[in-house]
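User: My collaborator sent over this chain with a note saying "see what the structure looks like." That's all I know about it. Can you take a look?
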Amino acid sequence: MAKVTKAKKRGFTFKLRAVDANNVYLAGDFNDWSTDSHPMKKVRNGEWEKRMTLPTGKYEYKFYVDGAWKVDPNNDQVSKNTFGTYNSVLSLIA
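Assistant: Without extra context I'll predict from the sequence alone. Here is the result:
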């Protein structure tokens, strides 16, 4: 019988400083780029956070801030997308 191994998962907290924002959502290839399924929480002084647990791997994501896409200013890892703009890249290692 073949041994089944569970995919390792890692927790990660996405953070964005958006002082004047009313709504911030996290979107990426992990949620089919949904602009409303992963709302971020305003925690303090214009900081927004969203904690996620994802299987190890490489993910592309952006923030959706009051209807506008925004790359992660704290992450210099980016990948050009099909729209001619960039997505932020997160690599979760086991």
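A starting point for your reply to your collaborator: The mean pLDDT is 93.
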